[in-house]
Amino acid sequence: MDQKVQNSKQRILRTKNLGRILLGSFVLLQTFSLAAEETLRLSTEETVKRALESNYSLQNLRYELAKSDTNFLKNDSKYSWRLVADGKSSQSILPFNQANLLSGTKISDDTIKGGIEKTLQTTGTYFKVEAGTRRFDSNAFENASTTPAGFSSLGIPPLYTGFVRATISQDLLKNSFGYKGRNEVKILESQAEMAKNQVSQQISGVIVDSLVDFWDYSIKTQAVKTYKQLVENTKNIRNLTIRKQGLGLSESFEVNQWNALLAQAENQLETATVQKEEAKRKLVRSLKIPDGTSLSEETNLLEELTEKPDYPKDLEYAYKHRADFLNALKQKEIAESALKNANNDRLPTLTISGTGASQSQNIISPQENYTDTSQGIQSAKYKEWTGQMNFVYPLADKGIYAGVRDANISMRQATLKEEDLKNEVRDDVKTRIEALEASHRIYKNNIVTERETENYYNGVLRSFRQGRADAVSVKNALDTHVQDQLRLTQARVNFNIDLLRYYLAKNALLERFQVDRDKLIPDLN
Length: 525
Description:
12 helices, cell outer membrane, Channel protein TolC, alpha+beta, 15% strand, two-stranded parallel ribbon, transmembrane beta strand, membrane, efflux transmembrane transporter activity, 2 domains, Outer membrane efflux proteins (OEP)
């Protein structure tokens, strides 16, 4: 009997331990489940950060930013060091006659050379250094049957000529010491900077679009809250009307009216919920937020002007940072450089070049010319000098005339564009400041309006409960209060949007969010 009792106690103990294990596992699973459903709270700064890292349009623009200096780098390749090499081999076989008695009937001439060359960007000077060897072989005086008596000693084995040669060339007029080349570099540098300015302005615009998507979700979320409150309030008033009907203080048609209003409010709630989910999906897709992530309904929208706009100061800042205005100035610089080059094309081309070489010959081997310090190339005893001048002058070249004409037109167009954009920037900054200040006042007025209509609605509702107000007054007060709640949310978002547009007007948006344009270039390694 005691044994049975002991066994029962052990079974009970094992059952309790198993229960504890199962309970612990359940709690652990619940903890993991709650952690997996952690709510993501998006702030304005977090939205911008995620947009820069994930938004497709922004990623594409960042790659465009990386390509902005392509033309400049391609042009710069003209001034790179180059390794050059070439070889030539020829052989001539002729019948024996008096004409080739001295030269021979079989001649071989082989040359191989290699070196480096470069065009200096600062002066346009062409420079080349090369080294090579030439093998010359002729069968002259080697055939006893055709060689006159006493001339057989003139026959020699293959002759090896080695050389180290330097060449320099310079244009003295049209591209005088790299004049046109330097202007072309200025043009390409300006074009690269224009591309960067344009892309950075587009990046600012896409950032604004991402924030607007974020705030649109906030508006839709607030609308759902408002319509939920509307449904709850309508339901309470309907129930109150039913109770008053039982006391003979309301008519049955009033209950019918509130039933209809409740159904209408529920429809509005359904529509608002669908719109909220649609806005959420768009935001999740834009920022590449993982599926199943719960988004917080809280936002950090600004409610006050952290810095009062200063028109003269903001205008000066805009002239220094606005991408379109800076690009207009760059376009004018490009037109000036292009006009200089077009006028310079009228000049003739006068190129002077010279070549100097140290050389040596032997009949031993090609290497002997380089290793023999007394008679070889190193001794610099045997030299070669060559000078050359080329002169080209265009006569009645209509293409040059057209180039000068077009360059002058481009210069005038750039000046007009600068003046027009200067006025446009001035008006844009002024308009954005006025819109920002107006939207801030509207937002503050909406705060007062929403508070007053809420107090009015609560007062009418109390009067309705006491029988001193009718259902129509309650309905009108409730509708007004709901609309003012929605207007308040929209006014707050509009104020923040106008604030972004104000930053855009003077191109301070990237600075506002501490985004360095040059650091946006993706790592392609």
